[in-house]
């Protein structure tokens, strides 16, 4: 059951997660019935239910016979969300003290298709207002599906403009919110002989990631221009 797996990820033991989901299904029940529903050995059910009570996930609702009932799943989720947000906030503060944010003008090299695609996915998922993409239609289409709701998407092919890739390469450009960008170069299959003539660091997909505002705005402008070349009266798409 996926709910059991997710509850374990939030810190419950397997028995606790199974007992809690069983209680949610039963409403209220004696421990023996919870054990049967959850597939938990009878000798373990009492201590498991007591731990759930200690976590605020279950409560005793009778003594003769002893019965347990689940407490609100929504309350537990809200409490877990607050705790998780608090942990993220504390981690953010600690990491900021250890290492400040990189300089905006910094440019980071990326090597390998997995690294390029992962960075493109991160930028797309983090978009708040705009995403500009050009080149590699299959990749662009996959990223468009990840775009958060309400984000304006400009997506186009790279045609009739000065090349932004070396011979034997295919360029892909992505920028979001005027804040971050990726310039990726994917390698065409040109055969072993041609590959040997390329510098070693250019024999696999490669590119750069940057927050440099000048580069980001140049990419956005280039994609906008490419889009107008392809479709002068184009309309942008909004993530849904």
Folded structure, characterized:
The protein has 240 residues and is an alpha+beta fold. The chain has helices at residues 2-9, 14-26, 31-38, 42-54, 73-98, 113-125, 137-146, 192-197, 213-230; strands spanning 58-63, 66-70, 107-111, 130-134, 152-156, 169-176, 180-187, 206-210, 237-238. Strands 3-8-7-6-4-5-9 form a 7-stranded mixed β-sheet, sandwiched between helices. Strands 1-2 form a two-stranded antiparallel ribbon. The longest helix is centred in the middle third of the chain and has 26 residues, at 73-98. 28% of the residues are buried.
| N-to-C series of helices and strands | HHHHEEHEHEHEEEHEHE
Look at the helices and sheets and give the structural class: alpha+beta
**Roughly what is the average pLDDT, rounded to an integer?**
84
Helix content: 40-55%
Could you describe the largest sheet, including whether it forms a barrel? 7 strands, mixed
Cα distance spanning the termini? 29 Å
Low-confidence stretches: none
